[in-house]
Design a protein that fits this description.
With 83 residues, this protein is of the alpha+beta class. The protein is 25% helix and 23% strand. It has a five-stranded mixed beta sheet. Strand 3 and strand 4 form a beta hairpin.
Length: 83
């Protein structure tokens, strides 16, 4: 699966994207985030406060409960502000 990181998440992880083979047990975005936090100290730092992270699954906005079954791409980014 392709995982994309934007803005400060990219800086903390140290990559704009990565390809990962995910364990079959991962069912939701929240499961993925919990698993990513275990992959490296950089990932743990990026998702330290997961409430500040938004996601898109196959380019559709998602929530922590969104299923990742069959997804080809997950993107993580900070909340968008306008003005």
């Amino acid at each position: 699966m392709k995982i994309l990181y934007f803005a400060w998440l990219r800086e903390k992880v140290g990559a704009a994207e990565e390809e990962r083979d995910l364990p079959e047990a991962l069912r939701t975005v929240a499961d993925l985030v919990d698993w990513l936090k275990l992959q490296s100290p950089r990932h743990e730092a990026a998702f330290e406060n997961a409430r500040l992270v938004r996601c898109a699954v196959d380019q559709e906005f998602g929530t922590p409960d969104t299923s990742i079954a069959g997804a080809r791409e997950i993107a993580f980014f900070p909340p968008v502000t306008g003005g």
